Amino acid sequence: MYHMRLPQANLMNPASQQYCDFYLNIPVAGATSVTVSSSSVAFNDLIFPGTGEYSDSLITILHPSYNIDDFLVKLQKKNHIAPSLSTNILSFGFRSRNLYFHFGVMEHVSSYFGYPKDLMVLMFKGNSAFAGGRADLSSLSLDATAYGSFGVGVSARVSDALSLGIRAKFLSGVANAALKNHGTYLTVNEEDYTHTLEADLSMNFSAPVEIRTDSAGNVEDIVLKDDYDTPENILYYLTHPDNPGFAFDVGAEYRFAERFQVSASVLDLGMIRWKRDVSNLVSKGQFVYRGIDASPVFDVNDTTTLDDVAEQLLDSLVDIFQPSVEHEAYTTSLSPKLFIGGTYSVTPSVRLGVLSRTEFRQKNIIQSFTFSANTSVKRWLNFTFSYTLANNAYNNIGVGLSLRGGPIQFYFMTDYALGLAFPDKSRALGGWFGLNLLFGCKERVMDDLPLFH
Question: How many whole angstroms separate alpha carbon 167 and alpha carbon 158?
Fold first, then answer.
């Protein structure tokens, strides 16, 4: 997106300066990003054509004819699924000599579910897979957050070669669910198959939910509060957040030769303080239990479903863990992101680039590398093509287009073009799209080429 010379480039590097003197993102339609990524499996790893007598049907990994080892071998030691959504409410920017100011109001939904391979082995192959050994469940994690942001930033062109930028973001949290795992391990006794679970877990909520307990204080259920049982009340909750936060972004761009440029930025350094409708579940210590029987799920003559087993497992774990319940405010950090990149300008209208993107999610690191080629066919027509190494996959082909007629600019781009064409075979889907109004745009010259981000 940065090489497409779009105003939205400053979302990834506040040092970026739009070549037009003024831009306005059309409200709501100005900038929307939708992404879902999986580190290990694609949709067709879960649902696929059967073999033999089931060759005319679609089956799942739970089908009796399927060898579950074929699925488990695809998993890494640590795995994750990460959906996200960001949409622009209103943003604009303008130039004042060597400074470029930008303002933006956005809504974000960010989620991350991390799960260890040992948990999947335990679910599908049972405790016998760990008899006399230990399952490592310490990478089990959850972080789901909905929040709004109001950003104020400025980019300063310090010299012909160097630009620096910073943006302050005032945050307003809507809802959050965060599971913190400080170490969880399951040891299976080889003689009687009893389980010893060592756990240090805490689950925080800031959401319109109620945790119901029995007379002894043990958790019985988690349900939606009665006050939020209508669409109108839910809408009010979503549009009246009451959890303050603050974050900032910093960035730099530098041209060290006529055709070579480098850039770097760090985003989302900040946190949100959750105070509204807060609940905390804490469980720490050693617990012993004998497990549950999941074999009926794999018996075609039995009516037990995976949902039944999951509910039984959840009830069993709640009974064993007996978490304490509190209602104390808590703090969560955003997921910082580090971008480092560079470009080589083959001609004034063709640029080659490379980009490293590193995202820090609790104790996990999500890394990707992108190689791109960007071309300006006309002042009003631009294309980008990219190849990205991410999610342990090597089929991430990206394409992008920006089209301008008068002051109106439309753009669309994705890092997962093959995923849009064949979603069942992709581990990631998503893209950016939107509309801008541009005024005071200058002719492009070599000295005004953007730095890669």
Answer: 17
Cα–Cα distance for residue pair 442/18, rounded to 1 Å: 10
φ and ψ at 289, to 5 degrees?
-155, 170
pLDDT number for residue 278: 93
Contact at 8 Å (CB) between 224 and 209? yes
For 97, the token pair is: 């000599």
C-alpha span between 224 and 166 (Å, rounded): 40
Contacts of residue 14, Cβ cutoff 8 Å, sequence gap at least 6: 102, 153, 154, 155, 165, 166, 167, 249, 250, 251, 265
The pLDDT, as a whole number, for residue 248 is: 97
Q: Is-contact 18 404, C-beta < 8 A? A: no
Tens-place pLDDT, residues 372-417:
999 888 778 889 999 999 877 788 899 999 999 889 999 999 998 8
Smallest Cα–Cα separation from 24: which of 86, 87, 85, 89?
89
Domain ranges for the chain, please list them.
2-40+75-448
pLDDT tens digits for range 80-120:
999 999 998 999 999 999 999 999 999 999 999 999 999 99
pLDDT digits (tens, 9 = 90+) for 151-197: 999 999 999 899 999 999 999 999 999 998 888 898 888 877 777 88
Do 199 and 287 contact (CB within 8 A), yes or no? yes
Closest CA to 363 of 204, 183, 199, 203: 183
- Would you list the DSSP string of 101-146? EEEEEEEEEEEEEEEEHHHHHHHHH-GGGGBTSEEE-TT-EEEEEE
